[in-house]
Amino acid sequence: MRGNMNPKQMKQAMQKLGIEQEDVDASKVVIHTADKRLVFTDPSVQKVDMMGQETYQVMGTPEEQTAENRNPEISDDDIQAVVNKTGCSEETAREAIEANDYDLAQAIMAVNDE
Predict the structure, then answer these.
(1) Is the domain 76-113 a CATH 3.90.1690 member?
(2) Measured CA distances, 95 to 34, 66, 82, 92, 104 (Å)
(3) At the fourth CATH level, which superfamily is domain 21-70?
(4) pLDDT single digits (tens) 41-56
(5) Tell me: the pLDDT tens digits for 22-36?
């Protein structure tokens, strides 16, 4: 049945059931688990709102990163950049860089939000 319905009809049917979908313009999605990270580059992401409950659907092929294949090298320049912008300690800067997938801008924002 669903195969015969065009996308516009499908959207209307979902709205009648109280389900709204919205595309999310995401360039990267990272899922952290206890022992690895799943990194989706250029994913297709949709936000689904069903009776006030928001969920996200991520479609794409993830790259699995474990502690062994993550970039363990953080340069002193990167650490100093975070320290200079935030005034935090070098240890805090290193932790923020690692926690934010080596993205300096995200690391700086994370430290500033603390």
Answers:
(1) no
(2) 16, 17, 11, 5, 11
(3) Nascent polypeptide-associated complex domain (2.20.70.30)
(4) 889 999 999 888 999 9
(5) 999 998 898 888 888
Listed residue (70, 67, 62, 56) closest to 101, CA to CA? 70
Cα–Cα distances in Å, from 84 out to 2, 38, 73, 88? 56, 31, 19, 8
- Tell me which residue has tokens 């790259």: 63
d(C-alpha 36, C-alpha 27), whole Å: 20
Where do we find the tokens 């313009």? 25
Domain boundaries, the chain: 21-70, 76-113
- SS3 (DSSP) at 96: helix
Q: Which amino acid is at 35?
A: D
- Dig out the tokens for 106 from the structure: 């995200």
The owner of tokens 């995200």 is 106
Q: Is 14 exposed, middle or buried (0-12, 13-18, 19+ CB in 10 A)?
A: middle
Q: Which value, in Å, is the radius of gyration of the alpha carbons in the chain?
A: 20
